[in-house]
Write a structure and sequence with these properties.
alpha/beta, single chain, binds ligand F0G, 443 residues, 4-stranded parallel sheet
Length: 443
């Protein structure tokens, strides 16, 4: 099945369009871009996607991303033609998205007080985080436009994923990281996969500024989530969750919030599925910030200048965002959380994130480091692995239930974004008997 694809500015009043082979991440007016498709995919594809789980050694059926390739066919290929798939689609031998689907974790369910809680461990991706869903598509686009070198800033997982796919595709990869603020297991992956690590004094926001500047000057191809093709791949996180639920949407989908790529991709996936008539109900999105890096929480809930920041049909109050960023800079308010994955103060996708929250009637909450650690520990005690930032999901669900926002009879899918890559965190947690779920060592 072939479709035509193009890029379009997300601001409905602007709507500038570009060919799908363009590598810009913003329109001329500085707004983010969407990948758009002309065709309306038939709901009969649901059956095709399901059948592909019996993959017969076809890596594009085995891949939990490319299994849904008709819904992200920006290469405009014949998706049933294996030669075309092999020529265009980048995959780590079908490994991305293969093991991640919703699981029931009884101890977490009990703790948060919700029977119908499903948690989807995206850490069970080849590089250990949800990033592989979007990196496989971003690198596919890079290959389509004959890019030899990709570049990103990262709190560690993006760089691990970018470096892994670059190595596998024989591309160069530069990763800009905040020096001393990246989990050791993530940093080691960047080196292991042969990336050029560039250490930046400062935080993730500074590293992103530096990498975007370098990309602009040297013509590098950015694979951060401001790249619209990253967002396309990350839609499959939602597709897998919905497929598991027989395409009956849950009441809520919950993510930790950092740069808001996931929030944006979830919104886009739901907007498309709803528009195509594949789903009749729109789940509500809940984004969980860390208290130490809570820009979205602050702005969305009117905690700055008493104004609730909203999508406002594409005319979000960017002045408010700018003033808040200036306020942070002036008062040296730096993001600070032990969950370094989401230690981000200036979420690059904030406008797309607002659109997702608007479409889904979403909410934004925040949790403390201690709450995230408890969430992480409890997932571990169910036999599943996740990192501290992902612990924000059980912690956030518990908080929202406590506030009566999520009701006890509702169905919730929470995305556990990455696996543990800092072994000192669970070791320190369990060595301290003060911690709620600690099992201290015996001597
Ligand atoms: N969880 C984990 C484990 C992450 O690594 C990230 C982001 C997030 C949540 C936040 O996701 O940005 O889509 O809101 N990590 C990025 C990185 C920034 O560089 O690895 P988001």
């Amino acid at each position: 099945m072939q479709s035509s694809a193009y890029l379009q500015c997300i601001d409905p009043a602007c709507g500038l369009q570009y060919p799908v082979t363009d590598t810009r991440i913003e329109c001329e007016k500085g707004h983010l871009l969407d990948v758009k498709y002309n065709s309306v995919p038939s709901p009969s594809l649901k059956e095709v996607f399901y059948k592909r789980r019996n993959h017969s050694n076809n890596i594009f059926n085995e891949s939990g991303v490319w299994r849904f390739r008709e819904l992200l066919n920006f290469c405009q290929i014949d998706t049933e033609n294996l030669d075309q798939c092999s020529k265009y689609l980048v995959s780590l031998d079908g490994a991305e998205g293969r093991l991640s689907k919703p699981y029931h974790m009884s101890r977490v369910s009990q703790y948060v007080g919700l029977q119908n809680l499903w948690l989807q461990p995206e850490g069970y991706n080849p590089s250990g985080s949800f990033k592989d869903n979007g990196m496989t598509t971003a690198v596919t686009h890079a290959k389509l436009v004959k890019i030899k070198k990709i570049i990103c800033a990262s709190t560690g997982n993006t760089s691990a994923s970018a470096a892994m796919y670059a190595a596998n595709e024989n591309m160069e990869c530069d990763v800009y990281i905040p020096a001393g603020e990246v989990a050791p297991g993530k940093l080691s992956q960047a080196f292991q996969f042969g990336a050029q690590v560039v250490e930046i004094k400062g935080n993730f926001d500074d590293a992103l500024t530096a990498s975007l500047k370098q990309a602009g000057q040297a013509g590098g191809y950015t694979v951060n989530s401001v790249n619209p093709f990253r967002i396309e791949g990350q839609k499959t996180i939602v597709f897998r969750a919905l497929e598991f639920l027989d395409w009956n949407p849950p009441d809520w989908i919950v993510y930790p919030g950092g740069a808001l790529g996931n929030t944006s991709s979830c919104g886009k996936a739901l907007m498309e599925l709803y528009q195509w008539g594949w789903i009749k109900k729109i789940p509500r999105l809940a984004v969980v910030n860390s208290e130490g890096a809570n820009t979205l929480y602050t702005l969305y809930n009117g905690k700055f200048e008493d104004t609730e920041l909203r999508w406002n049909k594409g005319k979000a109050d960017t002045g408010l965002i700018k003033r808040y960023y200036e306020h942070m800079d002036k008062n040296q308010l730096r993001p600070k959380t032990k969950a370094t994955a989401i230690q981000i103060a200036k979420p690059a996708n904030i406008i797309k994130g607002l659109r997702a929250l608007d479409f889904t009637n979403g909410v934004v909450t925040q949790v403390s480091d201690a709450e995230m650690l408890d969430g992480m520990a409890l997932v571990g005690l169910n036999g599943f692995d996740c990192e501290m930032a992902s612990g924000a999901v059980p912690a956030g669900v518990k908080k929202l239930i406590g506030e009566g926002i999520i009701k006890k009879d509702e169905t919730v899918v929470g995305i556990l974004t990455g696996r543990q890559k800092d072994s000192s965190i669970p070791v320190d947690y369990h060595k301290n008997p003060q911690n709620k779920f600690a099992i201290p060592p015996r001597s």
